Protein 1
Amino acid sequence: MNQATFTRTIIGFAQFARSRGLNVGVEETFSALRAMELGLFEEKATFYYALKALFCCNKDQLSLFDKLFGIYWETKNDDPKRQQSRHKITGPQHLPKQPGVLSVWGFGDGDNKQEEDSKTVTGGNATVRLRKTDFSKVSEMDASILEDIAEKLWREMSKRLKRRMKRRHTRETIDLRRTIRASLPHGGDAIELRYRGKKPRKMRLIILLDVSGSMDKYSFFLLRFVWALQSYFEQVESFVFSTHLRCITEALKTNGLEKTLSMLSTQADNWSSGTKIGECLRDFNERFAPQILTRSSLVIVLSDGLDTGEKGILESEIQKIRRKTRRLIWLNPLKGMRDYEPSARGMSEALPYIDHFHAAHNLESMLELEDLLCSI
Amino acid sequence: MGTSIQDITSLMAGFDRLGYVIEEELATVVYLSLKLGKPILVEGNPGIGKTELANMLARLLDTQLIRLQCYEGLDVNSAVYEWNYQKQLLGIKIQEHSALNEAEKEKNIFSEDYLLKRPLLQSISAKDKSPVLLIDEIDRTDEEFEAFLLELLSEFQITIPELGTIKAQHIPYVILTSNRTRELSDALKRRCLYHWVDYPSLEKELAIVYKRFPEIEQKLATQLVHFIQELRKKKLQKTPGVSETLDWALSLMTLGYQTLDEQAVARTYGCILKSTDDIRMLQEEGVEALLMA
């Protein structure tokens, strides 16, 4: 193969890789061509390693690269090392395609009894009434109104939180650099002090939502709540669980809130078979915690604590989470009920390790979270 | 660049002489980085020699290693430069009665004599040859710092308002490491050559142990590496890395063990397991299964 053909082939491979989802741009292609000039591509293994380092930029892309490389540069005299790595290839895992249904999640089965419940709350107007209504008792009609109110309130709350953070930290430390500058006209005596505010540090929020049968209506609202708060936090990682755990951060990021909700709603039926909180948290600890749990992260669990899994797992797993985070908040919609005692086994196992145990059954109770978030 | 490095083979030989076991893949990446002037981004679990790579590269090229350890809240003052305020205050006092006017006085105390160079500035102001710049655990900093770094890594120049722009005469060789506690920005990743380090295979780990401790009993080495390899298959809170293997080997040798048995393991748990849960689990399960027959 002569030089020109080879150049063309490499550009072809770059285009091929780009079309199949690798982030290969002009710069990468150019680097590959420069590497070729260095004579790096005379040996097959080196050629493969070099392209891999140039074209991949995270661990998850490595297997995709192997696959693409295999397809494009398929030749007879295969390098054993590459063959070995090609055996490990697993196709990229795509989320199941969701149908474009825009259904309001969890509000499909409204019946007369619920209608009555929401009416029994007395109040001046719909806003006041709805703010106090338990999420599970909101009728289908009111749901969209409530969503609008919620979004507005939460956005305001997010703004307030941000503002408060900025103001609180002023006048904390003296900015020596600017003070010295200001002191020059006074012969070096620091008469005017200049201050430096601490950069408000954003927290990382990790949210674990219970989406099993009884919980889905609450989870739906909390997810909206989290969505509204996103700008306040540095990073938000969201997970849903029932009998198994699933990370929905990516789905939220790429599809937006509405699509994710409708996607979740179509799968909601599979989730009504009990809640294995302990097992799901263990899964979280094993697969995700090492990467995303840090001392500056805040973990919110939203669940009624009705665990149908094995005894004792929840306790040890929640303990592990507690050890690695700044704060652990547990929101339990049942806490909003009068005379509620956290006596369910799951809840009582988790309780000793929770920093804040809070109700989350209506808008009011969620707005109260503002003070809590501020104090952390 | 060191004259000895003409190709990948000589690079590997160089690392080998220094006692660092390197695979062809990583050697290719390092070679490419030296030739193309691109930073290397090394990701992988803790304790598998990411930082050591930079150390060894500096020794191989016979140049200075400048290390920036990242942490949450790292700011320009501790990463790039800071003015030496105490010295400046003194400087102002000293020139109080001089005939200089204010602008000249200001120029004086904001000169290079009063500047404290932090790692990033040091790395671009090297006088005679390119240093190796190690930016360790970049994932611990915030996004703002990452953006700043991105700018530095493309221009290799730093602007200090009071002094002007300092441009690198010798572009440093940059190695970034990350433990993947968060995703780095795409822009930064694309600027780098990417390399993922996995736990080493049995053969490689054994080679590392022999390289580091040539005097180790062959039986002990094989047994302990085998033990660690088996241990990594378990679900642990903290999986031991290569650095734990080396610590353990040294501990066992210091205690005078020539073979690995249950008692030896029980006395040295702390070298390989760093969490009480893991130790308890191992104690309950027993270590017979992990010990080689």
Note: The beta strands of chain A are 173-174, 195-196, 204-210, 235-241, 245-247, 297-302, 327-331, 356-358.
Protein 2
Amino acid sequence: MFPYIANTPQDEKDMLKAIGFNSIEEFFDDIPKELRLNRDLNLKPAMTEAEIKTHMAELGNKNQGKDLVNFIGGGVYDRHIPSVINHVISRSEFYTAYTPYQPEISQGSLQVIFEYQTLITNLTGMDVSNASLYDGASAVAEAAFMAVDKTRNKEIIVPDNIHPNTLRVLKTYLRFKDLDLVIVPTKEGTFTKAALEEKISKNTAGVLVQNPNFYGLVEDEIEEIVELTHKNKALLIMSVDPITLGVLKSPGDYGADIAVGDGQSLGNGLNFGGPYFGFMAATNKLIRKMPGRIAGQTVDKDGKRGFVLTLQTREQHIRREKATSNICTNQALNALMASVYMVALGKKGIAEVATQSAQKAHYLYNQILEKTNFKPVYDKPFFMEFGITSDIPAAKVKEALLKEGILGGIELRICGDDFKNGLLVAVTEKRTKKEMDQFVQVLEGLK
Amino acid sequence: MSELYFTKKHEWVKVEGEHATIGISDYAQEQLGDIVFIELPDVDEDFERGDDFGVVESVKAASDIYMPISGKVVEINEELEDSPDLVNEDAMTNWMVKVEITNKEELADLLSEDQYKDFIEEE
Amino acid sequence: MKKYDSLIFELSNPDRRAFEIPKNDVEEVSLESFLPKESLRKEAPELPQVSQVDLMRHYTNLSNKNYGLDTGFYPLGSCTMKYNPKINEDMARLPSFTETHPMQDDALVQGNLELMDNLDQMLCEITGMDKMTLQPIAGSHGEMLGLMLMKAYHQDKGDTKRTKIIVPDSSHGTNPASAAMAGLDVVTIESKENGEIDLGELKDALGDDVAGLMLTNPNTLGLFEKQIQDIAKAVHEAGGLLYYDGANTNAIMGITRPGDMGFDIVHLNLHKTFTTPHGGGGPGSGPVGVKERLVPYLPVPFVEKKEAGYKLSYDSPKSVGKISNYYGNFGIYLRAYVYILSMGYNGLKRASEVAVLNANYLMYSLKDHYKLAVDRPCKHEFVLAGINTDIAEMPTVNIAKRLLDYGHHPPTVYFPLIVNEALMVEPTETESKEMLDDFIQAMKDIVEESKNDPELVKTAPHTTPVRKLDEVGAARNPIVRWKPEE
């Protein structure tokens, strides 16, 4: 029988009898005969746990990844993940709960969201955070909609050095709402005020800055860009890697209006692209324009502190087509993972992770420049990810590294033909000197 | 002397010369329950009759407020930003916006107080 | 533990640590030596510092204030809160899957791609569609994508006038919100009293400006839309497309298929029908399936099976593009894949049959104490129109809150909007007769209490970790983050 179906044939008989029916088939009488599927679904018969384990192990073994040393980044990073995270999210009171619509029996989920919002605002230096969004790319799109809604303008400006997938997602979202996307060419990999000045106008709703940008470079004209954006009455959206905020200036420090990003770095695994979550924080005055759930503190009948979903009139179930977004659920469990991660690390730990990642990345970078024929794609300050290039196609470089069990990075040709042989290399705190020395050794040996 | 009018969407309009003060009716505030937020337009914004110019929110509902007549906003009741509950206390004195009327002829299409009373009784 | 009332920030002690990373084994140069001083923050962000014991106890205590499916019955209508099998969780945590990066070369992730391709085919078979995309991250995300596909299809045919989407007034609030995200205008049509489409109303609303119709079947009242073939014919003849909101798929697996009913686009909620956990509000997964003529518009990339193996292809000039960063919530749809394998063709059909049996058993057992919205056999869920007022008066909200004291999660309340005092009940197939009987008894007891001791019901809940919360206060003066006392 099926372990997830409790009722037995005897139960079935008793139940039918109790309500005056003869067979389950009677409940389906109203489906027109010609619409009935008069055959079995073309699927395999049920498998037991043991059979599934074998099948999944076989399937998993067709992947390579778990025993490889990972230098791939592009917004998704291989980091140390504290054991406590899996133990917290494995509590089924968290993972088998629905959205906290009944606050009296959902104080766990609601307080988790409230704490998450606090952690995210402290990290980003913003006033308010929502309970999370789908992912980093759709968070950028939602932020663009907020800017459009707030300014009543229709144009979003982005530099060409953002994550190519973010750009793809933004294009799709904006196109269907008949909004305009203006792409600003960057200079030597970074976004300049001068470049923005050529495009910004009274029609601009929002300007996006990604820091560090897709090439790993630390943007150096953010203050000027924020000032210029605000002078044009547009909103400044800053997309950030949350780990870097352990040491880098926050969106709040720069005076950004909305901070967004992908939360994968915060204790979430690689998971072949998902589930991760997007985070979004903003200034106080934008709170009612935010998409998604927000938890708020209040008191119960007896005056005891408690939490509820609040400002719900922004949301789809009340505002329908006028809602700030159609998002219902968020990525609650991934946001919980991020909360546990931030708490496990604490103030000191997050600074250490960020610092070590940057220091190790610079060790590898310097070793490569010193010992091999590879050159930097951009010779500019970067954080923990950098582009290198040579006469050898990046695919070949990756192949050589893979032979030594190393995933070498991302081929930069995905950003355009200018980057023909470019390879984007990410280094996290998890990488060791030995692994990096081996990376350099492989590059040295390439001819 | 001011004249008082109502709409079928439960706004009231008090006309004094070229200006009109607009709010929502007592019946409307009662239907909404505890008002938690009121969004008002900017001063100098122009509206046509029937445009929505703001939102009144309770915990589980949000209602647009509509312009009973065309006009340009000359003043908003800023007090409502921090104390939206004032509308629950007294909907008829706690106004929302003052406008400069563009077309006085539109007033003829509004309801009188008595007509409005009959209208809500039928609802 | 019921008394536990600390926020993690209140436990912080700057000298405690819950986790440490290994010491740096390369030279520790100062950040200022390679980054501009202006790019660095003055102080690290304020994150709490606690011991590992404090951390575990904090979250364990919070979890004790939560109600999950593993705690008890969860009959939320339209949410399909069925048991989340544990093998799914174990399989989703296999390092051979979790430790693959989305930017790895196709050759290194053949297992992942094969799983995606297999799941695509399984879901197509279950729904009767031709091709699926797994990219949407939630049901609402799938809905948005489905409507984008609809719009892209019409635009590609040069039919740019089609900007309206018809939804019945019994539909979920996400339908119009998703339409707005796709740049479509919603036209709501009135349903008949039993929630079925009024064919006359529909035909009046159809025209050359209509992109399509969004529908669930069975509908929100748990009834099968018998005229679905006429509806499909009318919509198609008017040049529109038919969109299936898969919220109610749990009633029909192996019995009938949206593709055979005439639907062109389908979205599924894997976190409903296919047992992936709700997670307290995500992560979900909302694959979208389409008929052949809409395949060119699906998002990129998609999995292709070549002789050399599986490949992610971006070659699709008419594609709407991307709607999420990578390939959707891989770790979630992997769980759905495992579920389908566990059930097989026979198990999925049995699941739908028992889900429908359980719903009818509840509905007919409650019919004397509550008003039925429609007195006709239901599918996997049904709607009660509040308490039987011949016995007692009690608003639905109070009945729901009183159920908490009986240890049951309440049904969905005040939805669909077309039924007054609605209680929408969906038991799912995973609940036993004993559990259903316990719920029936609780529902009957509450009717008795409403008659004999209405105050008890009106002031409920009495036994939960917190009592009725002040939502008005929370909305008037939003406190949405913790701040240290000044």
Note: The mean pLDDT of chain B is 92.
